[in-house]
Amino acid sequence: MPAPAVPHPIARLPEEWRDALVRLGERPFRAQQVFRWIHRRDVVDASAMTDLPAPLRDRLLEEGLSPVLETVMVRRAADRTRKLVVRFGDGATVETVLIPAVSGPGAPGRVVAEEEQDADAASVDDLDEADEGERGAEATRVTQCISTQVGCAMGCVFCASGVAGLKRHLGPEEIVAQVLLGRSLLEPGEQLRNVVLMGMGEPLHNYEATARALRLLLLPEGIALSNRRVTVSTSGLVPEIDRLGRDFGGQVTLAISLHATTDEQRSALMPINKKHPLAELMAALRRYPLPKRRRITIEYTLVAGQNDTHDDARRLASLLRAIPVKINLIPMNPIRTSSLAPPMAPRVLAFQRVLLDAGYSCFIRRRRGDEVDAACGQLALHGERPRPKIPFASGGNG
Ligand code: SAH
Ligand code: SF4
User: What's this model's pTM, rounded to 2 decimal places?
Assistant: First the structure.
């Protein structure tokens, strides 16, 4: 989908603000003021930008500088995870989740994985170890999971967004606005540290909007996230993985939803594999311009009877050989439209054991905020009905 010629005000870069304001007859320094209101102070309503002259505020409103989303639901879990459903102007809804770091390995309800001393920030649950070297800082580090599309075209069979299909792409302003909203809702003592593109949608299927949103998230004069703390998760769109590597020099953290070790298995779970089979995907990972000491995150959703055997684990170990990775095993969160289910806890642990013995960093990730339906797409698409608990979460491993 081609990007609009003039980006929405919320998605404008500082130099675009300069051009736009000079065209309106304003002095260039106003650009920095407006940009700061939006990206530093989370204010997107021009009428609230109190240090701007009233006529300029009116012109900004005419330019369309006003909120692009509203919060329609907030659900809070016992672990302080907050799941928000937001609605855009056309009535479309997506979800975004704020996930505070748990305070340590003994925190209640936590699935304790081996090898907790990892230094890469890369997934919804990675924040626990992401700042290992910075423990003792005052702030509670929060990871925000954001959406990039309404629904998803990729059709993965275990995913609520995939089952729903693609309704539309989000614009860059709608992606960034989720982060501005999330930051404005932080509680005292919390600080936004990581943003993961793991909500609804396939970010690389909406490449232009995603790339612009990433640039805005990283800009030092704006939201100023560190690039290793911004994670793009993809089901494996190979040309766009290459493009992301080129456009961001490999600096943005890449997470690959792998989920299977043979083309037959993977195509059954993830139709994208028919277009970009495993060999092609693995080649893309090998050539991704990964900076030194950084790793690609491999996400592997364990689905009972589909991809969870000892042989699967061994194949996964050999498939990833010589690629710098860390592996996150995620017992599947049941969805209403499918009878697929997560394996029981002993099988999950056995799977992890094979990978640990093969020398990988391998973590078992529960989906945080389970009771608020924090898995991909579930709340925004299906309303508030309760879901069954997964065996792993209730199996006493937390
Ligand atoms: N489209 C991108 C990012 C959004 S999905 C991608 O697929 O990577 C984010 C992660 O949630 C993916 O790893 C996806 O496989 C996983 N996921 C989706 N539905 C799930 C479910 N029911 N249980 C566990 N993980 C799920
Ligand atoms: Fe889309 Fe990711 Fe869900 Fe697959 S797992 S359907 S790519 S959101």
Answer: 0.88
